[in-house]
Design brief:
By secondary structure, this protein is of the alpha+beta class. It is 21% helix and 23% strand. The longest helix has 12 residues.
C-alpha cells in the first residue's frame, strides 16, 4: 500500500485499496476515490494528482515510453545517418557508444540503446497569425481543457477566452523623459484631477490640516467642519500655512 506526505499541506495520503485513499492530518480525515470524488470525513478537498498517484491504477508496462524512443524514430535516425559521409573514426565511435550522429545538426543522439531518450535541438516557436493577432503555434488551452479526463467538471470561467492583443503597442514616453511635457502636465492636468492627500483619520479635529506637496505645487488641506474639508494653495511653504 502506498503512503505519501503532501509537500505543501503536510497531510498524509494512505492507499486503502480498491481505488480509495484516506487523507488525514491531525484529527481530521477524509476518504476519496482516486479520481477525486469525496466519500466521507471532514476533509472535503484533496490534491487530485496525489490521489491518482497513491490510489490510482498502475500504468501498463511501456505505456510511458517516450515517442522518441519508438522503433519508427530509431529507424528514421538510422536512415538519416547512412546518408551522410562519416569517417572511420566517427563510425567506430558511434559503434562503441551505441549512438548515431544527427546529419542535420552534427550532434550525437543516443537513441539506439533501449531505454535511451533523444536529445533533440531546441526549436523556437515560429508562431502563427490568427484573427486575434500573433499567437503561438502550439495547441490552445481549449484543447488542453477538452483533453481532460472529466471536462464536464471544469468551471465555465476557465473556458472563457480573453487573450491580450498580440503585437507591439507604441506608448508615448515623453511625459517621463521630457521636462517640458512634465511641466505642461503638472500645470494643465494635475490641478483638474483628484489627488490622494491624506486619510480622514489623519486630520480628525476641526482646524487640523496637512500640507500636500506634489511636484513644485503645494496645497494645505484643512478640516473645516465635522464632514467638511477644503484645500488651498499653500503660499508659505516653510511654515505650512
Amino acid at each position: 500500500m502506498r503512503s505519501e506526505v503532501h509537500a505543501i499541506s503536510g497531510a498524509v495520503y494512505d492507499e486503502l485499496g480498491e481505488g480509495r485513499v484516506r487523507v488525514h492530518k491531525g484529527k481530521s480525515y477524509g476518504i476519496f476515490d482516486w479520481e477525486g470524488r469525496w466519500q466521507e470525513g471532514d476533509i472535503t478537498r484533496a490534491d487530485p494528482h496525489l490521489l491518482q498517484y497513491v490510489g490510482g491504477p498502475d500504468l501498463p508496462a511501456g505505456i510511458d515510453e517516450m515517442a522518441a524512443q519508438l522503433e519508427a524514430a530509431r529507424e528514421q535516425a538510422k536512415t538519416e545517418t547512412q546518408q551522410q559521409d562519416l569517417s572511420a573514426g566517427d563510425l567506430a565511435e558511434d559503434a562503441y557508444t551505441g549512438s548515431v550522429r544527427d546529419p542535420r545538426y552534427g550532434v550525437r543522439n543516443m537513441i539506439i540503446g533501449e531505454g535511451q531518450t533523444t536529445v533533440a535541438p531546441y526549436v523556437g516557436d515560429p508562431g502563427r497569425e490568427t484573427g486575434k493577432g500573433w499567437r503561438s503555434k502550439g495547441i490552445s488551452f481549449h484543447e488542453v481543457l477538452a483533453g481532460d479526463t472529466y471536462p464536464e467538471r471544469i468551471p465555465e470561467e476557465l473556458w472563457e477566452d480573453s487573450p491580450m492583443p498580440g503585437g507591439v503597442t507604441r506608448v508615448s514616453t515623453e511625459r517621463f523623459t521630457s521636462q517640458k511635457w512634465h511641466d505642461l502636465e503638472v500645470e494643465q492636468l494635475w490641478k483638474k484631477v483628484w489627488q490622494f492627500a491624506c486619510c480622514v483619520d489623519d486630520i480628525p479635529e476641526v482646524g487640523d490640516y496637512i500640507v500636500y506637496d506634489i511636484a513644485h505645487l503645494s496645497y494645505i488641506v484643512v478640516r473645516t467642519g465635522e464632514d467638511e474639508f477644503k484645500a488651498y494653495n499653500n503660499a508659505c511653504l516653510h511654515r505650512g500655512r
